[in-house]
Write a structure and sequence with these properties.
single chain; mainly beta; 5-stranded mixed β-sheet; 4-stranded antiparallel β-sheet; 22 strands; globular; binds beta-L-arabinofuranose
Amino acid sequence: MSDEPASDLHMLASQAISQPLVTHIYTADPSAHVFEGRIYVYPSHDIDAGVPFDDEGSHFGMEDYHVLRMDSPDGEAVDCGVALHVKDVPWAERQMWAPDAACKDGKYFLYFPAKRADGRFQIGVATGDGPAGPFAPEPEPIEGSYSIDPAVFSDGDGASYLYFGGIWGGQLQKYRDNVYDPAHGEPADDAPALGPRVARLSDDMKRFAEAPREIAILDEAGQPLRAGDHARRYFEGPWVHRYRGRYYLSYSTGNTHFICYAVGDNPYGPFTYQGKILTPVVGWTTHHSICEFQGRWYLFYHDALLSGGVTHLRSVKMTELHYDEHGRIITIRPYAN
Ligand code: FUB
């Protein structure tokens, strides 16, 4: 949900604010990487699938992925076409939500969540010869995967990690210790909040090399953030990057609509909460990635300004991101002049 009243949407659209990377299709949930010297953005491809709104997010009825390519941050974003369609994924029935990609040994890997016919989300992987695909999916989802919003972080030592998980429509609250139980819900307000999950990937990038672990996000006193701390607790959309040797875990707080971050000393955490990266955008969801290109850092995010605030018709944008001298990220207010 936006902190801007709907009547101000037209005014916002005419201000000197970041513009969508593309306008011929709706795009969301951007995962950006530099591959082969160019920026590649892996977004969701938003459509109006005609599915009624519900609390499960069924109206996010996406069917395929397009990859966007940019030669430079201020260059044109080129739509490289359909990279993967749900009809080509044997195990998936619907709702191709936020994807990410990775590269290893000249091969490219697209990670994507989708719902099976029984309504459970899992995460799949598809392989391509180039960063824009097309990608050929594995016949089964990644064993042991669940929930949504996969994000890959490849560390300097050659290890890659898959982060994932989102509560509410993303179903993470139904899992404890990697076991599904539909009777589970969110923890009580004074209990530790649910954390995103992480698993190191196998050498071939197609499997988990270990059971997923739950990540702890701590407050300034070293205590886990509480489930009732909605302005800071993890909701969905994990992203990990490294800056000056430290690991930055950033994520959406969902129903309070912030992108926040926490910092740790290794890919598994724990991570200590630091602050906000992005204040609320137009539209209910907020989802981002952070990417370095030629020594400068960029935030990729989305909002629903172009569609007049339709929550499932979003557009990917980017803006430069800055750190202070202590490595703290300066909060971005997307509509401030
Ligand atoms: O795009 C569908 C879902 O909305 C994503 O998986 C979430 O992160 C939210 O952006």
